[in-house]
Amino acid sequence: MMREELVFGPIHSRRLGSSLGINLLPEKGKLCNFDCIYCEIGWNRDGRDDKKLPSASDLRKALENKLSRCREEGVGIDSITFSGDGEPTLNPDFSEIIDITMELRDKYYPKALVSVLTNATRLSREPVFEALRKVDNPILKLDAPSDELVRLINQPEGDYSVRDVISDMKKFEGNFILQTMFLKSDDFDSAAPESLNAWMEIVRELRPREIQVYTIDRETPRKDLVKFTPERMRELVKPLTDEGFNIQIRG
C-alpha cells in the first residue's frame, strides 16, 4: 500500500511529468467512495484506521513550505496534482483548498499546471464543480460505459449512474480530460466490442479536450487482472484517433 503525506514529491508521473502530489485524505488510511479492483493502494477495508483529514490551513502551510523549498533548490514542477489515498473531493475543504493552491501556484510556480484526479462522483455538488472548473486539468474518471460494469470494476458506494455522471461532465463543455482504465479480468474485458463501442459513443457525446487511456501499472488487490499493451490500446481507440480526438496512451 502507498501511504502519502499531505504534500509529497515531486515524483515522475506517466501522465503529468514532474508532479508535486497533494493527498487530501488520511496519511495512514484510505478514504474513497470507490473500491476499484485495480487500486494500487488496496481495498477500502484495509485503510480505515486513520480518518483524520487535513484542513485548508494545514494545506496552506504544507504547500507553501514545499513550494518555497523546491524553488530555492531549483526543483522543476510541471504539475501540482491532487491524487493521494482516495477521492480528493471528499475533503470538506476541497473548494477552499483549490483556491489556496491556485494562489500559491501563481506565487511560486506560475508555469505549473494544477491537476485533479477525481472519480467524478461529486460533480453534482456546485462547490466541487466550480472548484474543478478553476484548475488547469480536471481529470475525470469513467472506466466503463454501463452501471453494471462500473459496479464490477469500481464498486462505488451508494447510488451511481453513468448517465448522471455524463450529464455532470457535460457542464465542462469539453474542457476536461477523460481518464479510462483498460484492463481485463475473468469477468470483464475493456476490449469486448459491446463495451468498447459504448464507451466510444460516450467519448463522442462528451468530446473532451483530451482522453487518457491507461492500464495497470502496479500490483492490484484483485489478482486475476490483466494489463493491456500500449500497442493494443492504440489499436482499440484508433477509430477515435482517426476522428481527431486527442488520446494519450499510457502503458
Amount of beta strand: 15-25%
In whole angstroms, the N-to-C terminal distance is 21 Å
What shape does the CA trace take? globular
Classification by helices and strands:
alpha/beta
- Alpha-carbon Rg, integer: 18 Å
Taking the sheet with the most strands, its summary is: 8 strands, mixed
- Assembly form of the protein: single chain
Low-confidence stretches: none
* Annotation field: number of helices: 8
Order of helices and strands: EEHEHEHEHHEEEHEHHE
Summarize the structure.
The protein has 251 residues and is α/β, with parallel strands linked by helices.
What key attributes describe this structure?
single chain, 251 residues, alpha/beta, eight-stranded mixed sheet, two-stranded antiparallel ribbon, 18% strand
Description:
This protein is α/β, with parallel strands linked by helices and 251 residues long. Helix content is 33%, strand content 18%. It has eight helices and ten strands. It has helices at residues 56-72, 94-108, 126-134, 147-153, 162-170, 193-206, 230-236, 238-242; strands at 7-13, 17-22, 79-82, 113-118, 137-141, 177-181, 184-185, 188-189, 210-214, 247-250. The strands form two sheets. An eight-stranded mixed beta sheet has the order 1-2-3-4-5-6-9-10. Strands 7-8 form a two-stranded antiparallel sheet. A hairpin with a 3-residue loop joins strand 1 (7-13) and strand 2. Helix 2 (94-108) runs parallel beside helix 3. The two termini are 21 Å apart. The model has no long low-confidence stretch (mean pLDDT 93).
